[in-house]
């Protein structure tokens, strides 16, 4: 339960800021603990195992959304946890996000990690080919599925302007062999062959929307 803040007077400002400082200190301590655990989890993953576990990421965010209450907007909650997860991946193994025209979504999802911008979706996809576990964040507006895709798609997000975003990972990302797509349905991850994804209807039919939308400036 979130304890309510009583109606403030200007005189209360100092006291309220002191309360914030205490909360921030506790949050910081818990975040350091979360990152230490994530670092240890990374040590249990072998050098050839993928660091990024999309199904678990979906579960982590969905867990928080399910229990959410209070003044914090749900978009803020999701954004914070996406940044925590992006950072947790980075402390386990360095990786790069490749984007084409979707920088805003990539920053929202991953925060201050290394982002490389490519002129086209096919060039961003090409950058995944080395299988290092890098991730591409592509807008469906670019019809990236018109070309052969040798990567894993592991999440779809909808922007508030209606654009759909798909996350694709290099061959080290997924847990199966061959190009598989991963879709989120009912908070669980489902797989299908990326090679089978030939048109927009096909993609929309196979990927259920994720439990949140990414706000963009209108
Ligand atoms: O559960 C893991 O395997 C983790 O590495 C932790 C964590 C997280 O921050 O919750 C981070 C990266 C993975 O993609 C999934 C989840």
TrEMBL record:
Gene3D superfamilies: Chorismate mutase
Occurrences of domain Chorismate mutase (ranges): 7-96
Entry superkingdom: Bacteria
Top-level class of the enzyme under EC nomenclature: isomerase
Listed EC numbers: 5.4.99.5
GO molecular function, one term: chorismate mutase activity
Matches recorded under PROSITE patterns: CHORISMATE_MUT_2
Biological processes annotated in GO: chorismate metabolic process
InterPro entries recorded: Chorismate_II_sf, CM_dom_sf, CM_II_prokaryot
SUPFAM superfamilies linked: Chorismate mutase II
UniProt name for this protein: chorismate mutase
UniProt lineage: Bacteria, Pseudomonadati, Pseudomonadota, Alphaproteobacteria, Hyphomicrobiales
């Amino acid at each position: 339960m979130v304890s309510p803040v009583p109606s403030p007077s200007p005189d209360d400002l100092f006291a309220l800021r002191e309360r914030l400082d205490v909360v921030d200190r506790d949050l910081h301590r818990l975040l350091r603990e979360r990152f230490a655990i994530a670092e240890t989890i990374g040590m249990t993953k072998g050098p050839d195992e993928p660091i990024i576990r999309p199904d678990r990421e979906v579960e982590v965010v969905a867990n928080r959304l399910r229990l959410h209450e209070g003044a914090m907007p749900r978009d803020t909650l999701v954004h914070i946890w996406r940044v925590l997860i992006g950072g947790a991946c980075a402390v386990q193994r360095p990786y790069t996000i490749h984007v084409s025209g979707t920088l805003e979504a990539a920053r929202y999802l991953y925060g201050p990690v290394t982002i490389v911008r490519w002129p086209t979706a096919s060039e961003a996809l090409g950058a995944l080919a080395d299988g290092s576990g890098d991730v591409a964040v592509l807008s469906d507006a670019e019809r990236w599925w018109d070309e052969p895709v040798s990567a894993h798609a592991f999440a779809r997000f909808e922007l508030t302007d209606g654009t759909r975003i798909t996350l694709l990972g290099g061959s080290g990302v997924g847990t199966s062999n061959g190009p598989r797509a991963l879709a989120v349905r009912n908070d669980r991850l489902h797989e299908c062959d990326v090679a089978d994804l030939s048109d927009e209807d096909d993609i929309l039919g196979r990927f259920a929307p994720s439990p949140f939308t990414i706000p963009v400036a209108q």
